């Protein structure tokens, strides 16, 4: 086997980046008919917390009663690059 050496050159960036992300939990994907060998979802389209943030009820959906992990997670990420010319 030949050994390879990889050299990565970094360019000096004149860009200041800022990123932010928002997490949403949308439709419920829990299979309510799994115990009988079928597939059926309840039709819940968005997670709504049953309680306030920091409590156990904050992880339970008020609409369908499922845990938040059964709801599909959507992450919206925004990256902003502000150019500043070299001085």
Automatic annotation (TrEMBL):
Q: Does the keyword Zinc-finger apply?
A: yes
Which UniProt keyword terms apply here? Metal-binding, Zinc, Zinc-finger
One GO CC annotation: nucleus
Q: Which PROSITE patterns match?
A: ZF_HD_DIMER
Q: Name one GO molecular function term.
A: transcription cis-regulatory region binding
- Any Gene Ontology biological process: regulation of developmental process
Domain ZF-HD dimerization-type: where?
25-74
Can you tell me which residues the record assigns to a coiled coil?
none
Q: Which domain of life is it from?
A: Eukaryota
What is the name of the protein in this document?
A: ZF-HD dimerization-type domain-containing protein
| Provenance organism | Brassica carinata
